[in-house]
TrEMBL record:
It is a multi-pass membrane protein. The lineage of its organism: Bacteria, Pseudomonadati, Pseudomonadota, Alphaproteobacteria, Acetobacterales. This is Cation diffusion facilitator family transporter. It holds the Pfam family Cation_efflux. It comes from the Bacteria. The chain crosses the membrane at residues 7-28, 34-55, 75-93, 113-132, 153-174. Residues 10-202 form the Cation efflux protein transmembrane domain. Belongs to the cation diffusion facilitator (CDF) transporter (TC 2.A.4) family. The keyword Transmembrane helix applies. Residues 207-284 form the Cation efflux protein cytoplasmic domain. The keyword Transmembrane applies. Keywords: Membrane, Transmembrane, Transmembrane helix, Transport. It is found in: Membrane. Its main location: membrane.
């Protein structure tokens, strides 16, 4: 978890650096499209700070008031980041409209484009690093930050191409049009991020592929039991909660049933990096003859 926190802290520094570069590119050129790009970087800074705070909260151990831990704090962070992205998009649309009504000629386009290209390259490299660490650590906050940065990279490339066209052709309305298209893309990105985060807050089940793997592991490591039924899962940050009923022969000793549970838990925890497993043992009279049959 400390490594995740270090990445989140580094994101704040990277976001500030990129913001400075993009603000410089806008100042050099006066381009409203580059202004839109810089404004999104303001959101990047705010989002990185929020993500860092959420990761620190989610790392706290369970306590009396939060017996299941604080992992969902990262989902709140991702929702807030989505809201900030949408707000930035609306501000960009407003600026694009003003520029459409009164187009402005660009200044020092070559220097501004060079600075913006450097900032975009930094964002692209850091987005890739965040994706790797976020997915490996099952951190919604880091993945959200990475996705946001990737969206920023895509729009930045489009802006760079468009501003270059404005400089070459002198067609000024391309600049506000690009800013508006950037805003629409950012708005969609923010909505997607919020939708996925709401799923985590609503205790969505594990993906179908992972659920199938869980069923296979239970079946393969429950030798001595009869069946497992009422299997349920939910995701909370990097944690996967798994619970089910395990049916064993009525005359089986408690220690034997406990050994089977330990075996299943060990297999599941080896597969799921952070798992919380609850198994309710039942006698064979409770069998439902459906669910997971033991191999």
């Amino acid at each position: 978890m400390k490594r995740v926190e270090h990445y989140a802290a580094a994101s704040v520094g990277v976001a500030l650096l990129v913001l400075g570069l993009k603000a410089g590119a806008w100042w050099l050129t006066g381009s409203v499209a580059l202004f839109a790009d810089a404004l999104e970087s303001v959101v990047n800074v705010a989002a990185a700070v929020v993500a860092l705070a959420a990761i620190r909260v989610s790392a706290k151990p369970p306590d009396a008031e939060h017996p299941y831990g604080h992992a969902k704090a990262e989902y709140f962070s991702a929702v807030l980041e989505g809201v900030l992205i949408c707000v930035a998009a609306l501000l960009i649309l407003n600026e694009a409209w003003d520029a459409w009504l009164a187009p402005r000629a660009l200044e020092a386009a070559t220097s501004g484009l060079a600075v913006s290209a450097i900032a975009t390259g930094i964002n692209a490299a850091w987005s890739a690093a965040l994706f790797r660490r976020g997915r490996a650590s099952r951190s919604p906050a880091l993945v959200a930050d990475a996705r946001h940065l990737l969206s920023d990279v895509v729009t930045s490339v489009g802006v760079l191409v468009g501003v270059a066209l404005v400089a070459l052709t002198g067609i000024l309305w391309i600049d506000p049009l690009l800013a508006a298209l950037t805003a629409v893309n950012i708005l969609y990105s923010g909505w997607q991020l919020m939708r996925e985060s709401f799923g985590g807050l609503m205790d969505e089940a594990a993906p179908a592929e992972e659920l199938g793997r869980i069923r296979s592991l239970v079946a393969a490591h429950a030798e001595g039991a009869i069946e497992a039924h009422d299997l349920r899962t939910r995701r909370s940050g990097r944690f996967t909660f798994v619970e089910f009923h395990l049916v064993v022969p009525g005359d089986m000793a408690v220690t034997q049933a406990h050994d089977i549970c330990d075996r299943i838990e060990g297999a599941l925890k080896a597969h799921l990096d952070a798992a919380v497993i609850t198994i309710h043992v039942e006698p064979e009279g409770k069998a439902k003859h459906r669910g997971v049959l033991v191999l």
